[in-house]
């Protein structure tokens, strides 16, 4: 059965008790879960927020990114080892939140580029880090779902074809693919074909509008998207990820210079869109 989630990055990147009223309202709307960014917050906050989610019956998924100092595809073995240790820490914090899935572009450092296209050794280095990460995550009961990002934010994996190639090298049953309609809208020739292509490895799904605003307000064809999800028999999270300038530091870090939609507009109308599409396609 599909579960509907909402990424609280629309309000804040920080994990803290300040999110409690937001989490309560998401639960009231009908959401099954919330998604949190795992960053350098106070360690005690993860368990605190995780306990609150458990108390109100809200399930959890998590997302993260890697920086250039812990780049999994660095030619420096010490940097790659730092990536492994960082991802282990992130997984421990995710476990304290009660996370079921860790998604995001942690196969390589965010917005860190080379003056060339990715080559075989880049994928090999990433796969070695991700295999160790998937193995540790499995012991915690967390599924790893690395994500392909658009060319302006990511060097290694922009398309489902590249992500599939990487995952074949990772070769671990606890490493699956993540699909995000925002990035696919920019990078894939045909959204439905890309979903069908990655279907055997699909483990997590982000519902995101072309401008990161309220799902259904832009030009992403969600009717086609849900029809394809029905076709492939996807049973997993459908998590809305939209961005605002509510958290200026986070917004600046990802180049969000204007508000696309208000967070509660995204949450309420986005939930209605997903529910209506699930009912329409009898998923």
From TrEMBL:
Family matches, as InterPro entries: Sugar_Epim/Isomerase, Xyl_isomerase-like_sf, Xyl_isomerase-like_TIM-brl
Taxonomy, superkingdom: Bacteria
UniProt GO MF annotations: isomerase activity
Xylose isomerase-like TIM barrel domain: residues covered: 23-251
UniProt KW keywords: Isomerase
Pfam families assigned: AP_endonuc_2
PANTHER family documented for this protein: 3-DEHYDRO-D-GULOSIDE 4-EPIMERASE-RELATED, ISOMERASE
Protein name as catalogued: Sugar phosphate isomerase/epimerase family protein
